[in-house]
């Protein structure tokens, strides 16, 4: 078999995390790689750079240290209860990817990323706490492992070895190259890409860049990996794919945007035109706790609140959201309820004690303590009474915040924001009754209120008790004031469907046959298979899904090109290496 040096490069379209992981795996085996991206080099790593760097791991060292009893079987039950796969044909590969991902998260993820140099925070986060049923949606135990260094660190540990491979001539980059077409030869194999060279644009990371064309290009390769992300930055594409039958009665009008503008989903359609099978387009993951960024980077920039369970959640009309739609519990079910109201925003009512302890903001730039690896700032977060500096800035400058000393003035401020959205005005007496009914359930350590039960349950996990969940108290207790209201927006984020792939990340055609030479990894492939999450995510599975699917693509192509030689460059102790 010919050596990789004698072959054309593997072309990777999209230099985000999945593309970097694939490039890392290929370059470790001396397979030449060409990374193409429509953005400039400042955007290497894509969306992952902006993330909190949370990774879904099962039965990890950190979990065991916390006394958390987790297992493959429990994680698989949680996954299937959340995914609710119900499509015989389109869920064929997603089901297999789900099992493979949980196996990887149990057996290999921890060692794989730690071998690269990643470290996790000591305490494991508890995201998507569930719908209140044992076999339904949600994580039965904490599994959200936050990277010490957040998204930039996740990007760094894969980008650095890829850059070193570039110094050796194994990897090359072509930034500001927008792919418009996949080249397929007479045998039906993907052999290259065509597109436009965009004018130089040295904008900082995340800033919307120019799309002015200065030339054309055509590049041939030994295989093509599409790893270009989803549609979250393209609101019109989100609206076009919106499943009104499930999340109706109409498409929401207003969103804040959780990802940069270059996350436009173009390559999904381009791959489909070439013959790739695209499935589960209607499955998406959008958050219900979005804030308008007071200091935006990209257009309509939104930031997600990562809430713990104590805030009182009201819909736009002032009604309390029903059980088990509590903060941090069930994103998709909450989104469905909000859409059913006919409005595209909700209200949090909380106080200073809750915001200081329970408001975390998603994004590397919103967590300077963890991103900057500052123990001092981290201790300030844990023991401070004002919240992190980014939270304080939102409280001071954010357009969605109302801060008042009493409930009547708070409701008046909420109504000012409602008027600006042509929303319903809240009746003070009705809101007061909801708040007092909630407060009466916090007078004792036992309760009939589902949210109060959730708060008490959360505080049995000592990291939550110490640093994440406020001591139970009445909102109208002035000792915890002032009162705060936050108008929560819908925030676009992830594509859960996408290009169908087998377990090697090899793209599938509509007839069920593999597409020779064409692979897809990351969000463009629904993070694997065309929809590994089904309808709902357990969180930590987006960064993890990019790693797993990019790894699968890189290793599969190496096996195709090198055969038995593919194992010669493999690193780490993964049992998967035995296949190489």
Per-chain topology:
Elements: E1 10-13, H1 17-28, E2 33-37, E3 54-56, H2 61-65, H3 72-83, H4 92-107, H5 109-116, E4 144-146, H6 150-167, E5 171-175, E6 177-184, E7 190-198, E8 213-220, E9 223-226, H7 235-240, E10 256-257, H8 266-274, E11 278-279, E12 284-292, E13 302-307, E14 312-315, H9 331-340, E15 345-351, H10 352-358, E16 359-361, H11 368-371, H12 375-383, H13 389-397, E17 401-404, H14 407-420, H15 428-440, H16 450-458, H17 462-467, E18 483-495, E19 498-499, E20 506-508, E21 514-520, H18 541-562
Parallel strand pairs: 1-2, 1-9, 2-5, 9-21, 10-18
Antiparallel strand pairs: 3-4, 6-7, 7-8, 11-19, 12-13, 12-18, 13-16, 14-15, 15-18, 17-18, 20-21
GO molecular function: oxidoreductase activity, acting on the CH-CH group of donors
Keywords: Flavoprotein, Oxidoreductase
Protein name: FAD-dependent oxidoreductase 2 FAD-binding domain-containing protein
């Amino acid at each position: 078999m010919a050596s990789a040096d004698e072959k054309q490069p593997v072309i990777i379209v999209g230099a985000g995390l999945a593309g970097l992981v694939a490039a890392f795996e290929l370059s470790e085996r001396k397979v030449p790689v060409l990374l193409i991206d429509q953005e400039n080099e400042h955007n290497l790593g894509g969306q992952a750079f902006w993330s909190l760097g949370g990774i879904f791991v099962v039965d990890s060292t950190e979990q065991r240290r916390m006394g958390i009893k987790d297992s493959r079987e429990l994680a698989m039950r949680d996954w299937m209860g959340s995914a609710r796969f119900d499509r015989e044909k389109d869920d064929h590969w997603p089901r297999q990817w789900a099992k493979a991902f949980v196996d990887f998260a149990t057996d290999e993820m921890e060692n794989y990323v730690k071998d690269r140099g990643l470290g996790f925070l000591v305490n494991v986060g508890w995201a998507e706490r569930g719908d209140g049923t044992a076999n339904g949606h949600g994580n039965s135990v904490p599994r959200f492992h936050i990277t010490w260094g957040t998204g930039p660190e996740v990007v760094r540990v894969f980008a650095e070895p890829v850059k070193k491979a570039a110094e050796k001539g194994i990897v090359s980059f072509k930034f500001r190259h927008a792919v418009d077409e996949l080249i397929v030869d007479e045998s039906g194999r993907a052999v290259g890409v065509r597109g436009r060279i965009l004018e130089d644009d040295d904008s900082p990371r995340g800033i919307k860049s120019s799309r002015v064309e200065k030339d054309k290009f055509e590049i041939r390769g030994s295989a093509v990996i599409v790893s270009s992300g989803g549609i979250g930055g393209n609101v019109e594409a989100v609206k076009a794919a919106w499943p009104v039958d499930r999340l109706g009665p109409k498409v929401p009008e207003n969103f804040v945007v959780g990802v940069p503008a270059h996350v436009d989903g173009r390559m999904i359609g381009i791959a489909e035109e070439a013959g790739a099978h695209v499935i589960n387009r209607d499955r998406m993951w959008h958050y219900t706790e979005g804030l308008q960024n007071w200091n935006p980077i990209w257009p309509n920039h939104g930031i997600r609140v990562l809430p713990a369970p104590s805030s009182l959640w009201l819909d736009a009309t002032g009604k309390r959201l029903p059980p088990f739609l509590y903060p941090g519990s069930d994103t998709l079910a909450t989104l469905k309820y909000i859409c059913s109201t006919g409005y595209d925003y909700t209200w949090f009512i909380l106080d200073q004690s809750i915001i200081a302890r329970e408001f975390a903001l998603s994004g590397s730039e919103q967590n300077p303590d963890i991103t900057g690896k500052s123990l001092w700032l981290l201790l300030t977060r844990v023991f401070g009474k004002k919240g992190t500096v980014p939270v304080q800035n939102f409280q001071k400058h954010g357009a969605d915040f109302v801060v008042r000393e009493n409930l009547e003035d708070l409701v008046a401020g909420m109504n000012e924001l409602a008027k600006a959205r042509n929303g319903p005005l809240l009746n003070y007496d009705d809101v007061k009754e909801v708040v007092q009914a909630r407060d009466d359930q916090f007078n004792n350590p036992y309760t009939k209120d589902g949210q109060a039960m959730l708060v008490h349950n959360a505080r049995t996990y000592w990291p939550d008790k110490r640093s994440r969940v406020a001591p139970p108290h009445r909102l109208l207790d002035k000792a915890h004031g002032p009162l705060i209201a936050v108008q929560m927006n819908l925030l676009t984020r992830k594509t859960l469907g996408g290009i169908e792939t087998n377990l090697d990340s090899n793209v599938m055609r509509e007839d069920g046959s593999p597409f020779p030479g064409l692979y897809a990894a990351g969000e463009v492939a629904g993070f694997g298979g065309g929809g590994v999450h089904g309808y709902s995510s357990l969180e930590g599975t987006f960064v993890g899904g990019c790693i797993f699917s990019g790894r699968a693509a890189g290793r599969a192509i190496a096996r195709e090109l090198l055969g038995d030689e593919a194992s010669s460059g493999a690193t780490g102790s993964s049992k998967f290496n035995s296949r190489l």
